[in-house]
Amino acid sequence: MLVLGIETSCDETSSALVENGRKVISNIVFSQEKIHSKYFGVVPEFASRAHLEKINWVIERSLNGKNINQVDAIAVTVGPGLMGSLLVGKIVAQTIAYVLKKPIVPVNHIEGHIFSIFLDYPKIKPPFLALVVSGGHTELIIFEDFGKYKVIGKTRDDAAGEAFDKIAKLLNLKYPGGPEIEKLSKSENKYVIDFPRPYMPETFDFSFSGLKTAVVYYVRDNFPKNVKKMKPIDINSICYSFQKAVIDTLVWKTITAAKKFGLKKIVICGGVSANMALREEFFSLCKKEKLGIYFPSKKLSTDNAGMIACAGYYKIKNVKLKMQNLKIEVDPNLKLSNWQ
Ligand code: KG4
Ligand code: ZN
Hints:
α6 crosses α8. It is globular and about 65 Å long. It has a five-stranded mixed β-sheet with strand order 3-2-1-4-5, with helices on both faces. The chain has 340 residues and is α/β, with parallel strands linked by helices. The protein has helices spanning 33-36, 44-63, 83-100, 109-120, 160-170, 177-185, 209-222, 232-260, 276-289, 298-301, 305-319, and strands spanning 2-7, 12-19, 23-31, 73-79, 104-108, 128-133, 138-145, 148-154, 265-269, 292-294. Helices cover 44% and strands 19% of the residues. It has eleven helices and ten strands. Zinc ion is lined by residues 109, 113, 134, 270, 303.
């Protein structure tokens, strides 16, 4: 079965063709990074306009020489995300489904991130613990089976990626902040600052706003004159120490949850999972704890339509959607729900 995936929930316009939920034929991503970088964050109106301008182009390229009639079903992200951005993907997907008389399947973006793992590790089997860690989400989810999930923790304020982006803005670095902070953290020219770790051991929820405020106060107290005049060594040190505090927190909470719920496999996905220091820390501690650890490849960590097509395939197979079930709605605050 050939599924066409469409993803436009935030600032990536993406279209992909995936065969039988595992084989990626194409996965085209147009990143709007250049459009939003000067604002240090995504501007929703610019995002939806850019989706409109690029959506046909990414779909055409993703067909990869195939005729669109060869597509068996269309999977599209319906939330969570930005309303205007989601609507572009939904309307285009509905139009294609209507014209081709093919089924359309709505996919939750967070669910999509978890399914990215099945594209890189076709043999991985549930149950496992998933940490979805991106610009909009930090959630710990028990993936009991396809379509059967239990959310055991989520962020109470900033998502981890959002905290990376805000600290980058504070330090006058580029958007998105995660890759910039990671790059500067690697420098030898640095010292260590003892920022707090928001472990919150009584819950599996996350909170990164206190850590963010600690960094803001540190900068205000130590560099009161002008952030722009900070020396590279100071910027590198803040980046490294902030990143380490986020990583320590994510790793400790995730491994503690896996042990508590008796899960032997951990999947880390979403944009922040592209961070190499985070990967190394997880690999090293999971080895010690004898837990299996899985990351999607870097390209599949950030937003892409391949993961949406993959999730859509399993949904179609299991829910047996009726042909042309066109009545789908977008929801910017969509919650993860079970379909089994
Ligand atoms: O999954 P994603 O592409 O979009 C959302 O669903 O939000 O994640 C984007 C987020 C941004 O906040 C970005 O700063 C962060 O992922 N990110 C990283 C890295 N690459 C992207 N954070 C830390 N280290 C990275 N290497
Ligand atoms: Zn995402």
